[in-house]
Structures are given as C-alpha cells and as structure tokens.
Structure to design on (974 residues):
C-alpha cells in the first residue's frame, strides 16, 4: 500500500489454506461469517481512509513527528496496526467459540479443545491481549526487537476493546501457552498460521522495510493513545455488517468495490480545515459575528486576537474580562487562528450546565454558518449532554444526518485533498451524523457544544477512554465559566489540561476573573511546573488580563483596557426577613422599576415569591430556578430575555413594578438588565456575576429612562444576620457554599457595605476583590479572626477530602516516552458517559434522580402536561394522550420526554433515593420499554394528579408552570 493513497492490500495469495480458514466474525441469527483475512483487509483499508479523509492534520502531525519517516510512516503504522489488531483471533481460545467454524479450522490441522473443555481459563486470553502477545513475539523473532521495545506499539492491539491490558494480565497469559497454540502436533500449524498472517500484513501494509528503523523509536504515551483510538474506530467501522457484509454475501464484491461502497455508505464528514483569517480584528469580528453598523471590536477581543497571532505556537490562553466584554466571541475568533496554526479539525465549547450548553449551541451554529468555505461538503456538529435530542436546533440537524448503510457505487473513492490545496467549494452543510451519534462516538464530531463533564471525563479512568482523547486531541477546546468549578472538578480539569498540553491541543479558558493561585495552577497544569510560573509578566492586579503559554513554554500576559463603560454600584446591608424585604421593595419601587432578587436555595426563592405576591400581586412576580421541567426552564429563559434583555431587542419590558425572584440560574449566560439587585450573601466572584445583571445596559443618558429612584446602581446584600458580632449567613447558604467563602466575601466587602462606603467600581474592582477574597492575607476586623480561622480549617479539610476522593479514579499523568500504556485505566470505573452515574464521577455531588413528568387524569389515563406551548411548527404539545397499552406516537412521546426534571437534593440521600425509585417504578408501562420507544424507554415517570400534586418518598410535591416544583416534607406546612 503506498503512502497517502487508498490502494488495497491483497492478503489472500500470501496465505495457505489453514490461515484462510481462520474466522473473525459470526452472525448467529443469519449464520453469516467473515474470515480473519478479510476483516484484516477491511480494517486496514478503513484506517487508510480515516487517515486520509477524516483525521485532523494536527493529530496526523503528532503521530508523524514521532516516526523517522514522518507522515508516510504515520500512515503506514496506523494502517498496519488496524490490519493486525485481530490477529489474536487466530488462537484456540477464540476460535473454539463457534463449533461449525472451529470444525473447518480443525480440518486444516488447527486442533483445539471445545469451549466447554477449555473452561474458565479461556478468559485469560481475550483476543486483544492474545494479539498483543503474538505481535510482540513476531517483532522479536522476525526483526530482533527487544521485548521492552515492543509494548509501546503492540498495546494498540491489546487495548482495542477499550482497556489496555495490565502487567498482571500479560504475565498470566504467558503462563498459559495452550490458549495461544494447542500443544502437540498442531502447535506448529498454529504458529505457522500466526506467522503467515503477520508476515502478509507486514508486506501488504508497507511496514516490513520500516520495522528496523522503528526499533529506535520511543512513542509518547499520547501517540500510543491516539494509535489505540484509531484502531478502535477502524475496527468499529469495519465490523459494521451494513457497511462490510459477511460471507456469503461478501463474496459477490471485489475488495475495491467493497471499500468504496462502505465508505460512501458511511459518508463521514471531513474535518474542518481552518485557514488563518486575514485582516484586522475589526474586519474579522464584523464578518463572523454580524456586528451592528458602527459597532467597534472591544479591546479585550482585539488583544486576544493579537496575542493568538504572536504566540510561538498555539497553546493555552486564559481570558479574564468583565461580564459583557464579548469573551465568547473572542474565544471563537482565537479558536479560528489556533485551528489554522495547529491543524485542529474542530472546536469543543465546554460550559457549566446543560442549560448553558443548549444556549451556546445556536450561537455556535451561527458562527459556523459565517465561516469561509474550506472545501468540505459537510461538517459534523453535536450537542453533548443527556438532553441533547430534545433541543430543537439539534433535532433539526439530526434529520439531515443520513443513515449508515452499504450502497453500490461505480466510482472510486475520491482522492483526499492535500494540505495547502485551495478549497473547492464554500459553505459546508452542518449535520448531526448518524454514525457519530453513539454515546462513545459523539464527541468525535467536529464541532461540539456541551457540558464540562464531557471534557472532565477525559481525566477519568474508564473504558474506551482513548476514543475521548482522540476526540479532544483533534479540536480547539474552549472552557467557559472556569471559576464555577470546585476543587473536586478542578482535580480532573488539571489532569486533563496536562494531557491536552501533551497533545499540543489549543485551549481557551474564559472567566470573569480568577484567583491568581488558580490561574497559575491552570498554566502549570498545561505547560508543566518548571516554566509556567517563571514569568513576571503575569501581573496579579491587572484586569482585564490575558495569560497565555505554549506547551512547555513560558507564560506571557497582555493587559488590555476594559471597554469604555464602567459602573459604580452602591452596596448596602439588608436585614434578612421576608417582611423587611417586602417593605423595602415597596419603597424602592414607588416609581416603578424592575428588581432582581437572587436567593441561594430554591426553598428561599419560593418563600420569597409567596410573600412578595401577597404584597405586589401575582402578575408582578416572576420565579426562576433549576427545579422546572426542561421545556418550562427553557421557556423561562426566553421570557426573561424577552422582557429584561438589552434595549432595542426587548419589546415587553414591564412598565410598572416587577420583581424576578431567582436562584443561581440568573448568574450565568443570561443577558438581562435590572434596575435594582437584592442578593443573598455569596462568594464574592459570584456576587460580582450577579452584579453584572444590574444596570447592564445604558438606558438613556445617565440612565434617565430608569425610574428616578433607581438611576444609581445599588445592590442590597441580605441572607445573613448582620447584627451579630460576626455576620451569620443563613443555613441554606452555608450548606451550598460553606461558611468560609461567605465570611471572606463579607470581610472584603465590608468597606463597601459600611454607611458612606465607596461604591464597587466595575470592572476596576473585580480583580482586587477576587484576589483579596481568595488570597491568604487576613481580611475583616480583628474580632472576626476566630470565626474565620475555624471556618478556614473546615474549608481546608473539605477541600483536601474532595481532592483525595477525586484522585481515586483520576487518570495518571503523562509518563515518559516509550513506556507502554499497560494498565492505563486499571482500577477504573468501567463505562462512563453522560449519565447520572457518569456525571457523578467528575462532580462532587450525590447521584441525582431524574424523572419525566406527566399528568394523570381522573379516569387514569396519562397525558402530556397541559400547558406546554406548541412547537416551532405550531403543533400542539400540551394535553396529548399517552396510551399505556402501546408505544405512544413519536411526537407525543417526545413532548413527554421534554418534561424531564431533576429532583432536588432531598431525593439524593440513599434511603430516600431507594424509596423514591421503588415508588416510581410502580408506574411501569411495559409498552413504553424496548427499542421502539426511544423517548420513554427506561425513564422513571412521575405522574401528577389533576391538581398537579403527588406524594413521593415521604414528601408532598406540587408543580406549577409559574413556580416549578415545590417539595414539602410530610407533616410540615409551607
């Protein structure tokens, strides 16, 4: 096979009858089968096309740089490893599994005991591990390799089922040679067959004259991971009988026709081939983000672009800037530069929550639509979280994703476009490709928006981890709201950054601001501790701040100014009491106005809303928190944006008095603007985020369009007993944030909270407040010191406990080059993906309980929630019948599934969780299970009565579209 081509190997003429009889695949239902030589050819051919047509250039270059022959060697190695990956099936331990196929092999002299006779010892020789040993043995005997040199190459064979073997498994198999070759007269026949197969692969796949040169190679562990992942992908594609039919059907096709039909049937979109944008930042932002006429690019955005172009190589860039400075647009612009320079084939935008991920997805699509054409017909996109299929933007792309099926074609597979060739077309179509929808393959799509969990899982020892690494190794990674991640999550994030640095993956980190220590940790994790802290450029007091480092390099920094607008916010203590709050808001809203009240718990949100409604009326209060069903939560976000969004985009801003009572959902990714802010005491960086919703936009000269009393920006801080010698935060806030973070926030804010204190200046004071709150220096009056020290001790113990627990399943660091990946994910968690259990591994949270909420009528029938709005096509979703004797119509089932709800923490404690699951499983509808019920199968159903109430595990539940879910323990009152 020639380098860079798509020519096919021809193993068959090089094999004797015994080697030809070895089988690789068997379909028990149709009794079809596939000989090993054919699967070897298929897998190698797929690997060649994967390399030529689908693998991003940056990944190819990383592999090529490890080999003396560069890209030609890289391609040969990938093709060869894919070709030989199943050679372990040419062993008695594997071949004995299907009697009739084993009998054919026995007729050729390949004797073997039956599966039953082999007993449990057969499990010592999974075919991946057997293949690893056979390949290593062949390299030693045929090419004189040292045993310690072979593992870095052969581990891709041993790990192709998702878990590289560990040294104990390898040693155990060495003690059972009978599993590799039947002892006695047949042993020589087995050995000859294994050698014939490997000799033929070495010759046909173009490596026999390269193996001597590769003896001196030391493959880095990232390269070993990528090789393993490429073998897995090639095997999965070549094992799909819809693409590569089994015998006897396969016998009707020639090799070239078989490959062409399979590749066209698969129809994988090509990777993004970015070209570095020309022109200045103003031109780029105007073209990519449709800036309004006369709008100017902001200094942070301009400086980020300049820094990206100045860096010696794409690396890690941390962008710290105030809310509203356009960090998202800056990240996408930098991603375009980084992708062009690194050869990245896509972008992954990681966000804190499913809600923020869903909100980002349409913005990502708009940016993609404005990118210049790169010659690709289509690009694959994905929304990566567990509720993605319910997102209407994503669902529209699913319809265009095609289907994976074999087709007959008369034309050859087109030759790949080489790097540097001009683009042949413009505007690629965006699709959610069918083959890339699987839970282990979806991240392989070129452009992905999703939750941070998807990235953190790359640091979790789990099955098929290599695929997740391949997915991130070919992209630019953008991590938003990085300040939102606690110690537990940061343990995983830092380890992932270390691997990303080793892969030379460009990373862009976004934050309103970071503690200086955390910024240094991120830079050191990515570039290594020796150099990452050596720069004096990282001025801690500067803000906004851009910090950047290339892999293994020295950090550099830029200090752009903030955009011209600044705001001074007067802070004031407010006694914690609902009647106190209601009375104060009556005074403040005498002339009208819009107020945001942010509470730290859902319980406080609902209690507050109830009291304020009695004072201001039902229509004057809006509630927003996390305990709404998915579709209602999305509607809430849209409603808030429509009523309280930027001037010029809003037509429904209330003219009189209006109060939004919200939980932390108001902190992130909502461009809303209020006249007055009331907030529970919270960590200072989060309070600054909340302040970003106060006077966010200019409304008339000197805010003249706001009510006269509210033209000065003010934040009333409550949620604590301010009259005590040391402030005492309310219990719910302590449960969420811990006492230490709250007391430090109160301490650094004290000069601003005192009567006559100066206002907080945004953005000028953001960095100094955050550095003070998270620094080591003493804060607050002397009288506070004992309380702060006690809280600090509890905080340190909690953080150490988080770090210790997170390290249990955390992936190891990048070991020295040449060290095989043996035991890479040993003692891991098994399969891990975007499920409740998977997310719980990388977040320090209890396993939550998710339900689908429906309504039960008086006659016992089930319907979708009656208040649901129609979809974008005007189809009614509310009150649709859900028959229990058959699978519901797809549209009704999808409407029901869109009402997913994560139950609150009360239901996450083990005893209550088990009791709740047992009660929910009483509504088990057999007709809704199985493959024909894609929306409702395996879901727990919570049925509300006609008053939208029910009972569950000792709690009374009430739901309303205005207030969401309220949970009250039996025997207590509201």
């Amino acid at each position: 096979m020639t380098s860079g081509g798509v020519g096919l190997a021809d193993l068959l003429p090089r094999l004797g009858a015994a080697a030809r009889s070895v089988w690789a695949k068997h379909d028990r239902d149709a009794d079809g089968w596939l000989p090993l030589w054919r699967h070897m050819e298929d897998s190698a051919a797929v690997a060649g096309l994967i390399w030529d047509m689908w693998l991003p250039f940056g990944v190819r270059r990383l592999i090529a740089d490890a080999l003396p022959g560069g890209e030609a060697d890289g391609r040969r190695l990938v093709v060869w490893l894919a070709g030989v990956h199943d050679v372990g099936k040419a062993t008695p331990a594997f071949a004995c599994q299907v009697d009739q196929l084993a009998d054919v092999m026995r007729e050729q002299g390949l004797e073997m005991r039956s599966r039953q006779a082999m007993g449990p010892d057969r499990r010592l020789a999974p075919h991946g591990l057997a293949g690893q040993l056979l390949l290593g043995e062949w390299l030693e005997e045929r090419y004189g390799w040292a045993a310690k040199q072979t593992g870095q190459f052969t581990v891709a064979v041993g790990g192709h089922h998702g878990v590289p073997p560990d040294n104990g498994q390898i040693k155990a198999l060495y003690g059972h040679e009978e599993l590799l070759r039947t002892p006695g007269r047949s042993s020589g026949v087995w050995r000859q067959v294994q050698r014939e197969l490997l000799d033929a692969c070495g010759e046909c796949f173009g490596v026999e004259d390269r193996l001597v040169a590769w003896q001196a190679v030391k493959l880095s562990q990232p390269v070993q991971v990528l090789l393993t992942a490429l073998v897995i992908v090639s095997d999965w594609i070549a094992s799909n009988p819809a693409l590569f039919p089994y015998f006897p059907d396969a016998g009707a096709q020639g090799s070239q026709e078989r490959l062409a039909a399979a590749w066209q049937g698969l129809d994988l979109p090509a990777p993004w081939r970015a070209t570095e944008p020309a022109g200045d930042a103003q031109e780029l932002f105007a073209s990519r983000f449709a800036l309004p006429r006369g709008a100017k690019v902001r200094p942070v955005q301009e400086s980020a672009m300049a820094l990206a172009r100045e860096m010696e190589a794409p690396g890690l860039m941390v962008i710290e800037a105030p809310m509203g400075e356009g960090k998202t647009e800056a990240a996408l612009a930098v991603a375009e530069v980084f992708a062009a320079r690194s050869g990245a084939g896509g972008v992954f935008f990681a966000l804190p929550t499913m809600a923020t991920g869903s909100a980002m997805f349409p913005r990502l699509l708009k940016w993609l639509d404005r990118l210049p054409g790169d010659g690709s017909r289509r690009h694959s996109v994905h929304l990566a979280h567990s509720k993605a299929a319910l997102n209407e933007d994503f669902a529209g792309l699913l319809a265009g994703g095609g289907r994976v099926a074999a087709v007959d074609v008369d034309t050859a597979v087109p030759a790949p476009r080489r790097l540097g060739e001009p683009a042949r077309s413009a505007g690629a179509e965006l699709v959610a490709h069918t083959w890339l929808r699987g839970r282990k393959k979806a991240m392989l799509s070129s452009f992905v928006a999703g939750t941070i969990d998807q990235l953190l899982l790359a640091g979790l020892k789990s099955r098929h981890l290599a695929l997740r690494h391949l997915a991130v190794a070919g992209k630019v990674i953008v991590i938003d709201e990085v300040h939102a991640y606690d110690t537990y999550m940061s343990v995983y994030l830092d380890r992932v950054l270390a691997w990303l640095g080793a892969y030379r993956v460009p990373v862009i980190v976004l934050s309103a601001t970071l503690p200086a220590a955390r910024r240094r940790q991120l830079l050191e994790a990515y570039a290594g501790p020796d150099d990452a802290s050596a720069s004096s450029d990282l001025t801690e007091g500067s803000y906004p701040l851009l910090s950047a480092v290339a892999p293994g390099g020295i950090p550099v920094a830029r200090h752009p100014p903030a955009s011209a607008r600044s705001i001074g916010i007067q802070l004031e203590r407010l006694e914690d009491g609902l009647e106190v709050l209601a009375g104060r808001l009556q005074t403040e809203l005498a002339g009208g106005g819009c107020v945001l009240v942010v509470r730290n718990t859902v319980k406080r949100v609902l209690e507050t809303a109830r009291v304020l409604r009695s004072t201001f009326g039902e229509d004057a209060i809006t509630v927003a928190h996390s305990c709404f069903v998915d579709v209602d939560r999305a509607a809430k976000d849209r409603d808030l944006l429509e009523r309280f969004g930027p001037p010029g985009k809003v037509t429904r801003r209330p003219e009189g008095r209006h109060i939004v009572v919200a939980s932390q959902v108001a902190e992130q990714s909502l461009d809303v603007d209020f006249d007055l802010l009331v907030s529970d005491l919270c960590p200072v960086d989060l309070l600054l985020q909340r302040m970003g919703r106060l006077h966010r936009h200019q409304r008339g000269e000197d805010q003249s369009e706001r009510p006269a009393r509210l033209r000065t920006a003010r934040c009333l801080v409550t949620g604590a007993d301010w009259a005590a010698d040391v402030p005492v935060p309310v219990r719910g806030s302590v449960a969420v944030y811990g006492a230490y973070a709250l007391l430090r926030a109160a301490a650094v804010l004290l000069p601003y909270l005192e009567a006559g204190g100066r206002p907080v200046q945004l953005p000028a004071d953001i960095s100094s407040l955050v550095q003070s709150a998270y620094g080591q220096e003493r804060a607050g009056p002397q009288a506070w010191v004992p309380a702060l020290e006690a809280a600090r001790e509890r905080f340190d113990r909690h953080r150490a406990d988080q770090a210790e627990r997170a390290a249990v399943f955390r992936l190891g660091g990048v070991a020295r080059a040449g060290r095989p990946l043996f035991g890479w994910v040993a003692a891991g968690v098994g399969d891990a993906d975007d499920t409740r259990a998977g997310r719980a591994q990388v977040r320090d949270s209890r396993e939550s309980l998710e339900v689908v909420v429906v309504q039960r009528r008086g006659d016992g029938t089930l319907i979708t929630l009656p208040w649901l709005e129609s979809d974008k096509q005007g189809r009614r979703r509310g009150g649709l019948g859900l028959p229990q004797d058959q699978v519901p119509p797809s549209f009704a089932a999808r409407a029901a599934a869109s009402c997913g709800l994560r139950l609150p923490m009360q239901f996450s404690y083990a005893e209550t969780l088990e009791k709740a699951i047992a009660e929910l499983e009483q509504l088990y509808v057999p007709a809704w299970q199985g493959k024909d019920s894609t929306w409702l199968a395996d879901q727990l159903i919570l049925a509300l009565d006609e008053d939208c109430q029910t009972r569950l595990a000792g709690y009374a539940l009430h739901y309303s579209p205005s207030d969401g879910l309220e949970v009250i323990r039996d025997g207590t009152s509201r």
Notes: The mean pLDDT is 88. The two ends are 75 Å apart (CA to CA). Residues 785-806 form the longest helix (22 residues).
